[in-house]
Task: inverse folding
């Protein structure tokens, strides 16, 4: 049986990944700004696929970036939410990238390794458990989240924070679906990180 990494790297992408000189000047300009904001030098393969549709790609990526930059939640916490969602949705591409973000942000490696058992693991605070449990249930059946999960969530966060957590999670869903459906492979620079993705 192929490993998750082998499967990801050996799929044929649904659309070709654009080379640098194949992007429109507008899309490349946006990508450069996003790279500077993140301190990254790499154009991710997700953007190389999305660049085939300038207007949709730019609108989507600007929205995703705004949910990262705005609000009162810390970026390490938002990255943890995104990682929880990516693992629940079995998106290997996004899980790899979220591990990279979490490590860059200095998140405890124990949390990274145990995000799938965040409801019970001692590395997570009660507030983190409440948020991660809520978004996990969102991914399974959003219309039937247990009352006790919702009450616990409400006990730890303000309405503003609850909205930010939920929208951070839903943004990640759209990335999961896009990258999986288009069979986007992880980049060479993060293959080593891909080895650390838990079995999804």
Result:
């Amino acid at each position: 049986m192929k490993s998750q990494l082998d499967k990801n790297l050996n799929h044929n992408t649904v659309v070709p990944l654009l080379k640098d000189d194949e992007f429109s000047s507008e899309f490349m300009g946006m990508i450069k700004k996003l790279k500077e904001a993140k301190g990254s030098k790499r154009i991710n393969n997700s953007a190389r696929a999305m660049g085939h549709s300038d207007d949709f790609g730019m609108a989507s990526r600007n929205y995703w970036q705004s949910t990262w930059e705005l609000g009162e939640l810390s970026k390490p916490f938002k990255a943890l939410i995104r990682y929880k969602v990516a693992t629940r949705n079995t998106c290997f591409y996004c899980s790899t990238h979220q591990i990279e973000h979490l490590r860059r942000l200095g998140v405890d490696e124990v949390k990274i390794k145990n995000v799938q058992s965040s409801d019970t693991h001692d590395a997570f605070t009660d507030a983190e458990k409440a948020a991660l449990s809520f978004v996990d249930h969102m991914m399974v059946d959003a219309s039937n989240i247990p009352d006790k999960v919702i009450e616990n969530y409400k006990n730890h966060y303000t309405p503003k924070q609850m909205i930010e957590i939920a929208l951070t999670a839903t943004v990640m869903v759209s990335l999961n679906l896009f990258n999986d459906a288009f069979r986007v492979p992880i980049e060479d620079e993060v293959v080593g990180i891909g080895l650390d993705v838990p079995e999804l």
Remarks:
- The domain at 75-181 is CATH 1.20.1290.10 (AhpD-like).
